[in-house]
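User: Hi! I have a protein structure encoded as tokens and I'd like to know what sequence might fold into it. I'm fairly new to this, so please keep things simple.
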């Protein structure tokens, strides 16, 4: 969870870089920000985006007077918290008004009237915990497979995951996609990209990042970064969406 305040206009359009989490944006500023989803739709206000949202580099955000709380939810708990299966977002996004109706306006008012960021964080934390407690979780096998992918940095074979949970590859594919919002192979690729691109932002050598990240070579890493972000590795290291991570999302 992180809080953001941009008093003036965003400098240019902010490229949204894919992340292996469901993104929840709760805005309460003087003007509602706008997100162009890359498919011609413009979403205003608070929104929910599926894991991998921004793939291809076509998703942009803009606005001024932006204030928001951003939450990154693990896909295996997001369905219970949000009341919508991550698969229904399918790398896309929806406004919170569409998902939660009038509750979205109430949340905006509470966040805007809070005295401090800590009060906002406490409010959001309690809100999400309450929603999570009232809905069933994903299959434990799916949650376990997701954790294996994340811990392994995306370097895990799908057939091995299926064998470890005692499912067929086809069943794992179907249940994982339903619970997480993407097939396991795509999830592994996204996790691997996320690890690699943050190492690039930290200034590590691209050849070393490629070798450690399981890429065939540096050209393979280049193609993966370009496919996910629409930018080359040399350009993506300056993306604000990534460079703020070590402050807004400390490891």
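Assistant: Happy to help. Inverse folding works backwards from shape to sequence: for each of the 251 positions I chose a residue that suits the local structure. Here it is:
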């Amino acid at each position: 969870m992180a809080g953001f305040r941009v008093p003036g206009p965003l400098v240019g359009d902010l490229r949204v870089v894919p992340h292996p989490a469901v993104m929840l944006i709760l805005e309460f500023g003087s003007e509602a920000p706008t997100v162009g989803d890359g498919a011609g739709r413009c979403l205003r206000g608070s929104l929910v985006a599926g894991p991998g949202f921004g793939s291809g580099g076509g998703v942009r955000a803009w606005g001024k007077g932006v204030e928001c709380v951003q939450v990154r939810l693990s896909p295996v708990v997001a369905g219970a918290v949000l009341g919508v299966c991550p698969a229904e977002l399918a790398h896309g996004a929806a406004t919170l008004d569409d998902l939660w109706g009038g509750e979205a306006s109430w949340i905006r008012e509470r966040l805007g009237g809070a005295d401090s960021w800590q009060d906002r964080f406490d409010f959001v934390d309690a809100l999400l915990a309450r929603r999570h407690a009232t809905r069933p979780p994903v299959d434990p096998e799916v949650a376990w497979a997701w954790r294996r992918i994340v811990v392994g940095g995306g370097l895990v074979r799908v057939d091995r995951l299926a064998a470890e949970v005692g499912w067929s590859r086809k069943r794992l594919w179907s249940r994982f996609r339903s619970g997480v919002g993407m097939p396991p192979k795509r999830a592994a690729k996204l996790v691997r990209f996320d690890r690699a691109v943050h190492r690039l932002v930290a200034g590590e050598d691209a050849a070393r990042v490629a070798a450690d990240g399981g890429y065939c070579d540096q050209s393979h890493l280049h193609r993966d970064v370009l496919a996910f972000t629409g930018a080359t590795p040399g350009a993506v290291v300056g993306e604000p969406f990534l460079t703020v991570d070590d402050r807004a999302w400390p490891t």
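A useful reference point when you look it over: The first helix runs from residue 75 to 82. Feel free to ask if any position seems puzzling.
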